[in-house]
Write a structure and sequence with these properties.
Radius of gyration: 16 Å
Order of helices and strands: EEHEHEHEHHEHEEE
CATH class: Alpha Beta
Largest sheet: 7 strands, mixed
Structural class: alpha/beta
Strand order of the largest sheet: 5-4-3-6-7-9-8
Length: about 200
């Protein structure tokens, strides 16, 4: 969601949360850019058994999350997600054969849902598509909340509907300065997912 003074805007919460509750119904969720934990809180409130793993780059938010969101996330990783992807792929290429099975298992996770709430615009556009392609292959659904033409100091790119047309967009909403997308990933809907990230 778009940050306003360090917190997320709730402008598109209803649309996003309705899709998560009524269509996606996740048992596993990867939250990229935990922030103050809005998505983890909502998902665990609806299903305490849902496995929720978050990535958060900002150490101060990780510290906040560990103190206040322990019951909302099963794990919070303090790492840049794009770098984590590339580090994992690189490790898979150089690791010795004894450890390759364990590494393949770690890299070949799958999830019912991957959430990108006010995070993609902070990446260079080339990295945005690296991340989306990587996740599309490993998830049933992706939710994206992205500011539209909102220039701020921490933003690195502007992502539009035209940029995302190669993905299977199931739901799109634009309100004021925010856009919301529900994108269908490549994991079959009936397949059991395994979010085995450590």
């Amino acid at each position: 969601m778009s940050k306003v003074g360090g917190t997320s805007s709730n402008l598109l919460d209803k649309e996003c949360f309705d899709d998560i509750t009524n269509l996606v119904r996740p048992t596993t969720c990867l939250d990229i850019g935990v922030g103050m934990g809005k998505f983890g809180k909502f998902i665990k409130k609806n299903d305490k058994k849902c496995k929720v793993i978050g990535f958060e780059l900002c150490e101060c938010k990780v510290d906040f999350s560990k103190k206040h969101l322990e019951d909302k996330y099963d794990l919070i990783i303090n790492e840049d997600f794009w770098q984590w992807i590339h580090k994992s792929i690189y490790r898979q290429k150089i690791v010795n054969s004894k450890n390759i099975k364990a590494l393949e298992k770690e890299l070949n996770w799958s999830s019912d849902l991957v959430v990108f709430g006010d995070v993609l615009e902070h990446m260079l556009k080339s990295r945005v598509f690296d991340v989306l392609d990587f996740c599309e292959y490993r998830t049933k659904w992706m939710t994206l909340v992205i500011p539209l033409n909102l220039r701020q100091g921490s933003h690195a790119s502007s992502i539009t509907l035209d940029d995302l047309k190669k993905y299977n967009i199931v739901h799109y909403v634009k309100k004021d300065f925010l856009t919301y997308y529900l994108i269908r990933g490549m994991v079959p809907l009936k397949e059991k997912t395994h979010l085995n990230i450590k």
